[in-house]
Specification:
Strand content: 15-25%
Helix content: 40-55%
Low-confidence stretches: none
Order of helices and strands: EEEEHHEHEHHH
Structural class: alpha/beta
Largest sheet: 6 strands, mixed
Subunit structure: Homodimer.
Radius of gyration: 18 Å
Organism: Rhodanobacter caeni
Protein name: Ribonuclease T
Number of helices: 6
EC number: 3.1.13.-
Family: Belongs to the RNase T family.
Length: 208
């Protein structure tokens, strides 16, 4: 894994929020899925780590966003953590995965990845968190990769084009969207790996 991505471990992240403004709108859910690689160079998702997040003090909550996600931010049954505790929980799992893969840092994989990375970085700034395992600005975006590999940029359509199921009733949950994004990213990378192995078999090139 470290050789494949220059020392970075791809970790799929999806967030659900109270709007589109990372600086002022609440972070409400976060899910992260570190990826693993088998002996033949194929990627697969590892178990999902996720948590609900309490709105930070003064956070904006756009009713239109809450209607889409179906989140009630103040429902006590959510078991939400403060932003600091939520980041500690997610980051510890990511750091463990980075060490296990013998990588130096995590790199965020997301669908419209700049959105997820923006909310993550703003939460890090608000908390003054000093142990963020993610690269602060580089990321892999499955919008671009899905368009390249399957001619589809919408998550549901790209996932279906990759041969995986997608239930629109489950969408806009951080866990569900992260898991579908992980399937999509792995499908694209594994498709490329298949082509590498095909070329190696038919041309004698060493692409391992």
């Amino acid at each position: 894994m470290a050789e494949r991505f220059r020392g970075f471990l791809p970790v799929v992240v999806d967030v659900e929020t109270g709007g589109f403004d990372a600086q002022h709108d609440a972070l409400l859910e976060i899910a992260a899925i570190p990826l693993a690689m088998d002996s033949e160079g194929y990627l697969r998702p590892r178990p999902t780590v996720s948590t609900h997040v309490e709105p930070f003090p003064g956070a904006n909550l756009d009713p239109r966003s809450l209607e889409i996600t179906g989140i009630d931010p103040y429902n006590p049954l959510r078991g939400a953590l403060s932003e600091r505790l939520a980041l500690d929980f997610i980051f510890q799992a990511v750091r463990d995965a980075v060490r296990g893969a013998e990588c130096q840092r995590a790199i965020l994989v997301g669908h419209n990845a700049a959105f997820d990375l923006g909310f993550l970085n703003q939460a890090v700034r608000r908390c003054g968190h000093k142990r963020n395992p993610f690269h602060p600005f580089s990321c892999f975006d499955t919008v671009s990769l899905g368009g390249l590999a399957y001619g589809q940029t919408v998550l549901s359509k790209a996932v279906l084009a990759a041969g995986h199921p997608f239930d629109s009733r489950e969408a806009h949950s951080a866990v569900y969207d992260a898991e579908r994004t992980a399937e999509l990213f792995c499908s694209v990378v594994n498709r490329w790996r298949q082509m590498e192995l095909f070329e190696q078999t038919h041309s004698g090139l060493d692409v391992a």
